[in-house]
Design brief:
- It is built from 14 helices and 13 strands.
- It is α/β, with parallel strands linked by helices and 383 residues long.
- It folds into 2 domains: 125 residues, Enolase-like, N-terminal domain (Enolase-like, domain 1); 248 residues, Enolase-like C-terminal domain (TIM Barrel).
- The strands form 2 sheets. Strands 4, 5, 6, 7, 8, 9, 10, 11, 12 and 13 form a 10-stranded mixed β-sheet that branches. Strands 1-2-3 form a 3-stranded antiparallel β-sheet.
């Protein structure tokens, strides 16, 4: 089998809740998926998370794939996805090995794992080494509305009643009114959510990048969320401040989570060396694709570190996160974005099957994902 065509597709569909103000620092509606075709009629889907404010990351990654990656993998056997990953890692020396280059490689790698599963007639998790579970618990990923703690709490209550493992709240629906800007309001919000979801549903707090804290203030906030039995405290410092994260992790009882902005197993190895996080959050659409994320997972496992996939982009990454979560004996949880967005909830022809707060692993080969071509035609920007 040989790769015959690689098609990067730029998408745009904004979250309705985020449309009132420029989403500086957060994810905008731009994303990119890739379709890889073969001479045996099998195709695969992958994703690069490229949510920059003006679409520049999406267009740059498309160019990298068209000019840099496609000529190097066309005619190759897609089942040899790991060999091709290493080949591309060497080839991207000229433009980064991190950031845009890794986003591009992420999309290709996941698509090749999808193809491998379809070629062998098995789910992607089995391609990665085995299927340990038939379903995975979910946490509902949501945004704070700092103007309305009661309404925010009610969003969490919905998923607590549906049997979700937990609810995570982060950032803020309006960038100029983020969580983390006013201590009293922040504590009122956390207390209201905890009361709403009850004592048995886990609560995660995601600070995000709308605020920029120092270590002492992050420690103060971390001790506050500890009072409300937070399950983890996420992205409380700038992503590059690994020394600060190490100090934060030493200072708190609540697990410190980090990793959605890290690239390749090499970045996570630096986090390991500095003991800079208690819980890792690799993202398959950023870290280098499914096969590279599998290496991150194995590094976490042999060092007894909790990990949970980060997933806030499209249905393709949700499918990849699901298969990665069940491909390891210590996969215990998966993120599922609940703020409405067509790229997450409508792009797949068949919705993800969730029962009692757990996502079911599809029996179809590969990712088990079929793209809804009608929806795709509405959200793609190149046609």
């Amino acid at each position: 089998m040989k790769i015959t065509k690689v098609e990067p597709i730029i998408l745009y569909a904004q979250d309705p809740s985020m449309q009132g103000e420029a989403n500086v620092g957060g994810y905008t509606g731009y994303q990119l998926i890739v379709r890889v075709d073969t001479d045996e009629g099998i195709h695969g889907w992958g994703e690069a998370c490229v949510g920059s404010e003006n679409g520049e990351a999406a267009y740059a990654v498309k160019e990298l794939i068209d000019r840099g990656i496609t000529p190097r993998i066309k005619g190759e056997n897609p089942v040899e996805y790991r060999r091709l990953w290493e080949q591309l890692y060497e080839a991207t020396y000229w433009y980064g090995r991190r950031g845009l280059a890794t986003y591009a490689m992420s999309a290709i790698d996941t698509a090749l794992v999808d193809i491998a599963g379809k070629a062998f007639g098995i789910p992607a998790c089995q391609v990665l080494g085995g299927q340990y579970k038939k379903e995975i618990p979910l946490y509902a990923s949501l945004l704070f509305d700092m103007d309305d703690p009661e309404a925010t709490a009610k969003k969490g209550e919905k998923y607590a009643k549906l049997g979700y493992f937990g609810t995570k709240f982060g950032w803020g629906m309006i960038p100029s009114k983020p969580f983390g800007a006013d201590f009293k309001k922040d504590e009122e919000m956390v207390a209201t959510i905890r009361e709403g979801i009850g004592p048995n549903t886990k609560l995660m707090i995601d600070v995000g990048r709308y605020v920029n804290w120092s270590v002492p203030y992050a420690v103060k906030m971390g001790k506050m969320v500890e009072k409300y039995d937070a399950f983890w405290f996420e992205e409380a410092l700038p992503q590059d401040d690994l020394n600060g994260y190490a100090e934060l992790a030493r200072s708190l009882d609540v697990p410190v989570a980090h990793g959605e902005e890290l690239y390749t197993v090499y970045d996570f190895n630096e986090v390991l060396k500095k003991k800079a996080a208690d819980l890792w959050q690799p993202d398959a659409s950023k870290v280098g694709g499914m096969s590279e994320m599998k290496r991150v997972i194995e590094l976490a496992r042999i060092n007894n570190i909790m990990w949970v996939p980060h997933n806030w982009s499209t249905a393709v990454n949700t499918a990849a996160s699901l298969h990665l979560s069940v491909s390891s004996p210590d996969g215990f949880l998966c993120e599922f974005k609940q703020e409405p967005n067509v790229l997450v909830h409508d792009l797949a022809k068949r919705p993800f099957r969730v029962e009692n707060g757990k996502m079911q692993v599809p029996s179809e080969p590969g990712l088990g994902l079929e793209i809804n071509e009608k929806v795709l035609s509405k959200v793609r920007l190149d046609r």
